[in-house]
Amino acid sequence: MRQGQLLLAGLLLFVALSSADSIDLTSGSVYSAILETRGLSPNWAGLIIVDNGTNGQVDTTPFVSMTLNTPTIIEAPFPGTNLKNDLYYYAAMVPSYTINTNNIQNMTPKDLLVNELFNSTEYPIFYPYYENLTDNPNGTFCCVEANITIAGKNFTAYKAILNQSIPYYLLKYNVSNTTTPLFLVDIADATCYNGTSCIGVFMLPVNTNAYNFYILPQTTTYNITTWIDGVETRTFSQTARPYNLTVLVKDLFSGVPQTGKDVAVYEQGGQNLFIPLELSGIVNTAWSIGQTDGSGMEEWLVAPTAYPEVVNYTIGVAVVESDQLVSPITLSITTYDSLPSSSKTVTPSELRDDAVAAVNAMNQIVNFLFEWASNREEGKRFRYDYETTTGTWTTYIYVSPLGYVASPATLKSGAPNQVEVRLLTSGTPQTGSVRARERNGFLILNPRTGSTPLSAKSRAHYQTIPTGTQFIITPTSYSFVTSNITFDLYNQGGTLLDTLTININNSLNIQGGGASLSDDDLKATVNQMNGIINSLYLALNT
Q1: 1, 241, 367, 378: which is deepest, by most CB within 10 A?
Q2: Between the CA atoms of 500, 506, 511 and 517, what dihedral angle is there, to the nearest 10 degrees?
Q3: Residues in the chain where the model's pLDDT stays below 70
Q4: How far apart are CA 62 and CA 93, in angstroms?
């Protein structure tokens, strides 16, 4: 480690916490702080960042501004509770620019020479003796390179290692041929200079000008604009109504429309047929995925399903990457405690015709689900055992009065299928989880199945349940739709062990040999879904 780096790390190592000040910050506000305490180096100030318990948000503009005009160490609470996973950076620079990643540049040895990147105008603390200072930026950073990624772009930064092995990065930012240093540190739970907990550390040259702080991602981040029935808004006026939802996806930092991107409209905790009973503490997700066109746009027919309560309910839009929702935005619903019975125009006529067919099919499915769950108080029951020592599945069906019998298992469309998945090692149950997912079935959220006049969408509904927990699913494979159901099995560490494709009987009929199933919550949910589908039917047919 160079002498300058020793001084930098030593500043964090030897100044006691009792000599560090702290200030309270509120996310989204701008502050100016004058720092008074002493440090070891007369040219650098230290910033110990702690989690203030609030979420942070990636943005192109700074979330806080601070003046560090004396050599001091200060403890500052920053937002970032949701970002402590080594996928985000806190970044600092003096000018309050709107960040565009096209303006971030790689470091070169020349940048750290006298009156280059750290010039006497912007960083007078190092002058007139820049070259003679052992802790000048050249002695501190030159020239250990590190490849880092910001917003999906790769950069060559210089890296210093702070005390407790915390990496610290330096890049440059260029606007109109004027460059300025850009300092970055990972957002992650860490142990700081004196053994205290923190989520980041900055060492910044003492400066009378304020430093502006940003949150930057490693992966590409998107800006999503939405129109509902042609009006730019994020609010649906009424639940259980068909709306045209149009989205535009741009790169957040460059503003360039993103073509060929998978983008989804999604619900969490909504009313959907595949998962007719939500388990306590387990949120189900439904989404319809399309792909942006050459202008970065995509369009859906959407019917929110929040009714009559909205506990743990979310509807939104997000880019989908590696099966994850990226840069989600939340939409809202003005009225969700009542169901309208009037008509609502859907154009063009081909779109309306396709929606009518989908709603009619879902109406048939929910009618049979009502017959099973409410009138007969009966369901189908299955168990799926996975043995880790052999990597094999054994399936069971419940036959009254015998109980579970080893047999090939086929779930029924339109029925409440009560399922339990067990993870076993030599017959002993293990802790794990299973993701039950139906693809390309019917979704109330997206009540259509065609490929014209809107583009074709892939639809999915899933939830992740602890192994050994009974859950209820209803396949929606019926009529002109053939769905696919899979169980993804994970061990306790989250490693995927196997994926099982589930057999489906897509006939809507009542079969004997089921198990008794009396559940008031299931009955209530089925009634609510029936009301939502009926409201959609009236909107499209009156």
Answers
A1: 241
A2: 60
A3: 1-40, 513
A4: 10
